[in-house]
Write a structure and sequence with these properties.
The structure is a homodimer. Chain A has about 230 residues and is of the alpha+beta class. Chain A folds into two domains: about 140 residues, Sandwich (Jelly Rolls), CATH 2.60.120; about 80 residues, Orthogonal Bundle (Arc Repressor Mutant, subunit A), CATH 1.10.10. A five-stranded antiparallel beta sheet of chain A has the order 1-2-9-4-7. Chain A has a four-stranded antiparallel beta sheet with strand order 3-8-5-6. At the A-B interface, helix 4, helix 5 and helix 6 of A face helix 4, helix 5 and helix 6 of B. Chain A binds a DNA duplex (30 and 30 nucleotides) through helix 9.
DNA sequence: ATAAAACTATGTTATAAAACACAAAAGTAA
DNA sequence: TTACTTTTGTGTTTTATAACATAGTTTTAT
């Protein structure tokens, strides 16, 4: 499990999004309540059916939210990057987690009691809107994802994932290599396909000079073509 | 397009869910703002890319929320039954609709300006929580749906849809016939399969004595078996 | 009431993707 | 270093489901 952080982290800069909508009083409360947990690579943050208690904000690292499906096949539902919030949906819906979360790489998470958060947002309309907007945005993404994952073919789904990864995590100094270190299996789970199909399709993309590979590092050579593949399905 | 209602509808009973969290003052405002629109069978309520303006509450009838996917294939994202709210997500996310909505049967919708709703929920924490809970619930459903639609086989997906329809719209006097009149195509679009596959799989379920058919009317004979089919995928 | 359109049903064929199998390579631990 | 596990890569087979075709049936419109 995660290890508690000992250092003090400057919340006003790390939680910037939510910080903006808080009063000074509320900020003090949050500061008192906030805890920090470090996770190593591939550690579980929460599991399916667990009771949600805390709002989580990823401060450092990369986290996947996933569901175990039919026959142990996992589906990555969404991926979290620093200064994104997660773990609150199930609490608001008054149900246990329907997903699990784990770290892709060494990560730091800030935890704040959901009881406190709910109490505060009932009084602070801007804070309420902050959560309403996040939920609304994520629901739109999920709606799109339902169609993309069910109707696009393997090539289209993988192309879409690569574009998503680039937009989410950015690129390295060369301006083209996606800044994430993912196993073929995770890439397959993100794109709803088997590992073998992810490997084969990546190899095809290399042959077509759309990407190039160096182990797990993926460099996008022809983004237009990748976008085209994603759009035609 | 929909036809404006002329009669006066008692909002306190029809909008019961949201009514509970409102102050008397707010109720007066809502009453003044609310409009009613009737839709005939298979009329469009809103379309993709349109700008959302109103909160919609279905008072009578049945509505489908769907997305047009690759090659004109539609995917039904969710289905609405009376006293359910819809149409608000895109407004909150500050984006155009990513889905379309249309009536399955003659329907009445109550419209309330989203500007008014947002203004009110910024001041009323209970009302904010009402929307947060709806969004959180729907996002959980969408997360589950992603896995079910992508990983289950045709039989499992259709079985799941039939159970969903029974739970959403209930049964007729015989206690077993699902109270909805759906074309095979809509059933296919709900379950992410082709019309031919929906027809064939329904026929198989009849042979296996899980359901019986009378035109579009579907009677569930062996719900346990249907649940089993849905769960094993 | 009648024609036209849409829907239902079923057989056949084509194909995308999973399943299986195994070898090579790369990490990881002792 | 050596052994061991995990990941990657590729070929072959199988299978679920889409695509196509066509006929019968029901619904809708005029």
């Amino acid at each position: 499990m995660g290890r508690k952080a000992k250092e003090i982290i400057d919340l006003s800069s790390t939680l910037e999004d939510i910080w903006r909508v808080l009063s000074e009083e509320e900020r003090v409360l949050i500061k008192k309540n906030a805890r920090f947990v470090h996770y190593k690579k591939n550690e579980t943050i929460y599991i399916e059916d667990e009771q949600p208690k805390d709002l989580m904000c990823l401060l450092k690292g990369k986290v996947k939210i996933y569901k175990s499906g039919v026959g142990g096949r996992n589906q990555i539902i969404r991926m979290i990057r620093p200064i994104q919030y997660f773990g609150y949906r199930a609490f608001f819906a008054r149900e246990p987690y329907v997903t699990a979360a784990s770290s892709f790489e060494a990560s730091t998470v800030c935890l704040i009691s959901m009881d406190l958060i709910e109490e505060m947002l009932r009084k602070n309309g801007n804070m309420a809107m902050f959560f309403i907007q996040m939920l609304s945005f994520d629901l739109g993404v999920a709606d799109n994802r339902i169609v993309n994952l069910t109707q696009k073919h393997v090539r289209g789904r993988l192309a879409e994932s690569l574009i998503f990864l680039k937009e989410s995590y950015g690129v390295e100094e060369d301006g083209a290599t996606i800044d994430i270190y993912l196993s073929r299996e995770d890439l397959a789970n993100l794109s709803n396909m088997t590992t073998a199909n992810a490997i084969r399709t990546l190899a095809n993309f290399v042959n077509e000079r759309v990407i190039s590979l160096d182990g797990r590092k993926i460099k996008i050579i022809n983004e237009d073509k990748l976008l085209k593949i994603s759009n035609i399905g």
